[in-house]
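Hey,
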Amino acid sequence: MSYPGENSDLAIRRRYREAGLSRQDIERDALEIYGVEVSEGYPTAAGLISAAQVHERFSEADWLVNGFPVIITAIGMCQGCWVEEIRDETGGLVKKVEFATGGWSGCERLIEAVLQNPRIRDRYLASSDGVGYVFLVPTGELKGKLQLESPG
């Protein structure tokens, strides 16, 4: 089933729940698929290093559009993460990734790590009040898609 904003943290949480999966399953996928370990609402030290480097199985574009929302969902305390397709100023299709930390220190540490990666920082568009972040990713750079495992 498809939801508006299919990669928003709320839609991801809903899809996991509908698949009979738990928060621990989201944390497992954040680590095993996207390379970022999360424990009790915080990215671990190793998870922050991985977030800065981007997991080797993905391009930065795929990681940011498909993985970042899963990691935010695993942390669970952020204000939100939304992904929508829009047209940029040249008329090209892009994925707009918006992330609001809500001031949660685990989310703040994650975004600091992510912005250490120059190829992700190049997609960084804006910040509002230090708690909201916007990234633009050309859709032509995307190859991957979020895949949910069934329990068992």
